[in-house]
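FORM 7B: Structural annotation worksheet

SECTION A. Query
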Amino acid sequence: MASQPSESNDRQRDDAARLGFRLTLPAQILVLFIAVFPLVMQLYISLTDWSPLDGTGWWMAWESWNNFYNYPDLMADNRFWSALWRTFVVMIVCVPVQFLLGLGLATLFADNFPGKRIFYSILLMPMMVVPAVAGYMFFMLFQSGGPVNDVLSTVLGTRVSVAWLSDPTLALIAVMIADIWQWTPLMFLILLAGLVGVPEDQMKAATLLGANAWQRFVTIVLPKMKTIIIIALAIRVIENFKIFDTLYIMTGGGPGVATETISVYIYKLTTQDLIWGYVAAIALAILVVLSIVTVFAMKRMAAARATA
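SECTION B. Predicted structure
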């Protein structure tokens, strides 16, 4: 007799689960279509030589089927690897600088001081600027007769007229400065959220035990912020990998291809060369790389939570 109520409860739970599944099925199908269809279409196009210039729709791309030839071409494309290398250079320089600056500012803003809200608002302003507008701002700043050279002339006491955006090395440095200026506030905001979440009682206990500020930071703050740090770094790595707006406004990928990152290269292939099958292959390869980075970050985040 005791098993009858249990069986009734199990049936009710099963009925509720089936009802919930039926009610959410349309939304699940829509989400699946939105996520899967573009990916499948991209894979399909990447196996062809289709272009809008063919005069046929993408659904007829099978007429120019080339199997997997786009991928060997990709591996042998020196311009692709150069663009990818520049993207990594920008990422390797910008992300650590943004992290260190963001962490330093977050540590500073964790304490109260006069005018904190005003400085806080000012500090977040670069993040609110549209990237294209930021690109135009820095394009003007780094002109030969622009404010940057004027400041350098004042400091050095001699006329400086460096052609920042015409020099291959200096142009890339200018782009990285612009990226650091705009996205350090985002890193600061994420790290500050993690910093204020560190238990205050542990900090006080460590202080009573004689730990100095550096020891408290290393033994308490950083371990507690592992998850937040991984999230912040993962976001900036992925976003930095896709840098386009600011860079394209400032240099257009030039001089020559000196500042051409992978996003700019894909844009040029898409809009100028119109070889969309090859572009789809590149985009799919980039998607795989970014997916690997995301999975790695999630695993590190899970490990950080387990050890916290």
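SECTION C. Observations
The CA atoms of residues 223 and 307 lie 9 Å apart. The chain has a mean pLDDT of 84.

SECTION D. Sign-off
Analyst initials: ____
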